[in-house]
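Dear Dr. H.,

I hope your travels went smoothly. While you were away I took the liberty of generating a structure for the chain from your last submission, since the lab meeting agenda had it listed for discussion. I wanted you to have the full record in hand beforehand rather than looking at slides cold. The sequence, exactly as received, is reproduced here:
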Amino acid sequence: MNAPIRKCIEIAGAALCCLITSCGNDSVVPSKAAASLPANEGREVWSAEIVISAAASTKELLESVASDFSGGLKTTVRVNPGPSSSLANQIIEGAPADLFLCASREWAEKVKEADVAERSVELLTNTLVMIVPKGNPAGIKRPIDLLSSQVKRIALAGENVPAGKYADQVLAKLQLLESLAADNKIARAQDVRGALSFVERGEAEAGIVYSTDVNVAPNVEVVHEFDSALHDEIVYVLVLLKRGAKNPEAISFFEYLQSDGADELYAKAGFRRVGQGKE
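The corresponding predicted structure, in token form, is as follows:
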């Protein structure tokens, strides 16, 4: 074989080797969490989607925090809002979720008892308020006014839902619950956002919701804020589920939800971190 032909073969062989080598290295890094993993570790369980099942009252908040967290990353955070009680039961029955943010300690404990939780933290708190449609057509100013003949319906979340339980505790301590129930004035919604909607549409003269819910309902107004001594402490518990513990992105989001950056978004939405007093 003459020298020019041999030289051509050598060049072609070298090029082929480079091509094979470059194809063997995965250069796509879906996110910062994936980039930090050792080669091939966790690839079978890693997902670019994080699913967080969350109390209905936190829907807009979590969408905002999720957007801030995933900005610039190829990670999708899917928020699944609903009543804490229903979401907990779904998770216990095997519904796919990486994180769970519920509006009471009770439902976080039930998830732990079912052995589907990895770890948890008490994250946020809120305030219970009485709302009326814009303009307050029934002239309600105090809880006692709910007994007025002008009030036909008061909207509350379901009896098993945290917001509904807190509302029942308040009305019971104010010695109003039995009378309102006897007069068939209580209208139950699936969750606190359902109760909010009843009032916003004018289907109830009053309702009891969280103070943060009012931020997404321009057609209602707050007429009374309940003393926190009238109900159990409102605590939103964040749970990292065992499914999420296998997903590096879910672990990162669990940690981000406890960060200073997230605190700014909580304050903007009217939530407070557990242990922080009102300003």
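Two observations you may find useful: The chain has ten helices and eleven strands. The two ends are 88 Å apart (CA to CA).

With kind regards,
E. W.
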